Amino acid sequence: MITKTISPKKKGKATELSEKVAERLFSLRNSLGYTQRTMAEKIDVTFQQYQKYEKAKDRLSLERAIVLCEKLGLPLTIFNENNAAAKGFAESGQAPFGSAAQGSKARAEEDELIALFRSVPRKSRKDFIEMVEKTAKLLSGKN
User: Fold this and answer.
1) pTM over 0.70
2) In 1-142, which ranges are continuous DSSP H helix?
3) Residue in 15, 8, 5, 2 with CA at minimum distance from that of residue 57
4) For position 53, what pLDDT does the model report?
5) Which domains are assigned to the chain?
6) CA-angle at 56, arms to 52 and 59, nearest 5°
7) pLDDT tens digit string along 81-120?
8) How far apart are CA 40 and CA 134, in angstroms?
9) CA distances from 93 to 77, 78, 86, 113 (A)
10) Which residue, among 137, 73, 76, has the nearest Cα to 110 in the 3D structure?
11) CA atoms of 13 and 2, how far apart (whole Å)
């Protein structure tokens, strides 16, 4: 948790907090294997604007942070300095923020599947998806 108060600086100067948020955005994006353009689309901003967030040139608003967390099914606490899941974000035990916070057994199973998918090397993910599709068809009797 961020304990000291960080006062905003003059326009154009990044605060310590905005730099931490930028670092978290960069780490999150890389852990998900997303491009800056993909992240920008998730929060409905231009690619250039997202770059500014990631470089701490502009501050990410709370509204945009909430939208991002909802779309990714992550807790808003990913931006917390002492979050134990800071390295991978997806391992957080806290319930996701907003509409993604289902709390059901199905949600836990979905989270487990997503974690497994993220553990697969990027070049093998297509094969993983095909395997899951074939298994689903086989188990549902839709050959």
Assistant:
1) no
2) 16-32, 36-42, 47-54, 62-72, 105-119, 125-140
3) 15
4) 92
5) 16-140 (1.10.260.40)
6) 80
7) 554 444 444 444 445 544 444 455 666 777 777 777 787 7
8) 32
9) 11, 11, 12, 15
10) 73
11) 20
